[in-house]
Write a structure and sequence with these properties.
The chain has about 140 residues and is an alpha+beta fold. The chain has helices spanning about 5-15, 20-30, 75-80, 85-100, 115-125; strands spanning about 5, 30-35, 35-40, 45, 50-55, 60-65, 80-85. The strands form 2 sheets. It has a 5-stranded antiparallel β-sheet with strand order 3-2-5-6-7. A two-stranded antiparallel ribbon has the order 1-4. A hairpin with a 2-residue loop joins strand 5 (about 50-55) and strand 6. The longest helix is centred in the middle third of the chain and has 13 residues, at about 85-100. The chain is elongated, with a radius of gyration of 27 Å. The termini are far apart.
């Protein structure tokens, strides 16, 4: 059994992330912390440390039980880490599933049918009795 392991390899080997490159990107982008400090993918972890992984909309927490760098089967995952995520985080996840689009801010993304119609009516030229097809003026004058 190893005493230390790289965080990106451990996250991949313990099946928290699908690929090692995704795990490394999560570390680089500040979504993986140990004791509240962002970590680089090359940081070594030890048994007993608690790792927090931010996956929108919640933050998962894992206590390291075994340092591994080779991927293990799904049945062996409980021997590798202990999930110590707060119950309130799971309640938040359930609330976001029920409510649907939580993170979509109004006005971002594709417009709704009503918004598109109001945009079309705004961009169409208003008719105030002017007929632009008539040539009431001479361009040469």
């Amino acid at each position: 059994m190893m005493e230390e392991a790289r965080i990106d390899k451990w996250l991949w080997a313990s099946r928290i992330f699908k690929t090692r490159s995704i795990a490394a990107d999560a570390c680089k982008n500040g979504r993986v912390t140990i004791a509240g400090v962002n970590v680089k993918p090359s940081r070594n972890i030890k048994v007993g440390e608690t790792i927090s992984v931010k996956r929108s909309p919640i933050t998962y927490s894992f206590r390291v039980l075994q340092c591994i760098e080779q991927r293990v089967g799904a049945k062996l995952v409980p021997q590798v880490y202990d999930n110590v995520t707060d119950q309130k985080q799971y309640e938040l996840l359930e609330m976001s599933r029920i409510s649907g689009f939580v993170d979509r801010a109004r006005g971002t993304g594709r417009p709704t049918k009503k918004e598109r119609r109001s945009l079309d009516s705004f961009t169409e030229p208003a008719e105030f009795g002017f007929n632009f097809d008539d040539t009431d003026f001479d361009e040469n004058d």
